[in-house]
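Intended use. Records like the one below are meant for learning the mapping from a protein sequence to its folded structure. Do not use them to infer anything beyond what is encoded.
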Amino acid sequence: MLTAVKAPLFVPANRPDRFAKAAATDADAIILDLEDAVPASEKDIARANLTTGFTGKPVFVRINTAGTAWHEEDVLALRQSMPTAVILPKAEDPDEIVALHASLGGAVPIIALVESARGLANARRLASTDGVVRLAFGSIDYCADLGCAHLKDVLLPVRSELVLASRLAGIAAPIDGVTAQLDDPAQTLADAAHARDLGMTGKLCIHPKQVAEIRRAFAPSQDEIAWARRVLDSGDGAANVDGTMVDEPVRIRARTVLSSARGNDT
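Structure written out for the chain above:
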């Protein structure tokens, strides 16, 4: 279930009034945020609000990164709430992930959020670290770290490297970063479709309005589903489907499309 999450929605953990509202959306997981969305003056309040009892959906918690004044207290709070997964921001050092995983008794999966040059340089090691089930891309922080523009062509090699790192490690494909524009569904859809085309299988949401477009982007279209069925109905060996040569690699892609379609219905 965790590896199939496509549209997890952030909620500031200092706003418990929003927890159930977030869970009532079509988001397939809820992220209670202790980090960027919470001012320093409310970190303790946010931490005290951690719970999974407001929903049957997966609940992730984004903690403050190692080395901050709040990290150790966040980890202590996680031991009480035991969320579905922990998101570690600014993930750079595999040893920090090993320590975090061990401190939680090896029982809570970790999503490593890559947000810096060092994180990208270590992406393959991070993906292979015990406890890590998925990478995610913090594209805005990444651009701030490198001083580069937040543009698709600039970030293309970064997203591709995260996809490759995940594949080499044998973990689920990564989750893309947020779309900052909250009032532009077309932009959200385009960004999510771009991530899908690169091999990512999810995208972080920062507003309920974004959920539907992200789920739409990662769900196979009816045309894709019909194509996949025609491919699999073509038998074994080389065949001609819609004027195109089909063999086993194409059938693998067709099976993936139908598997994704079934997952989207759950």
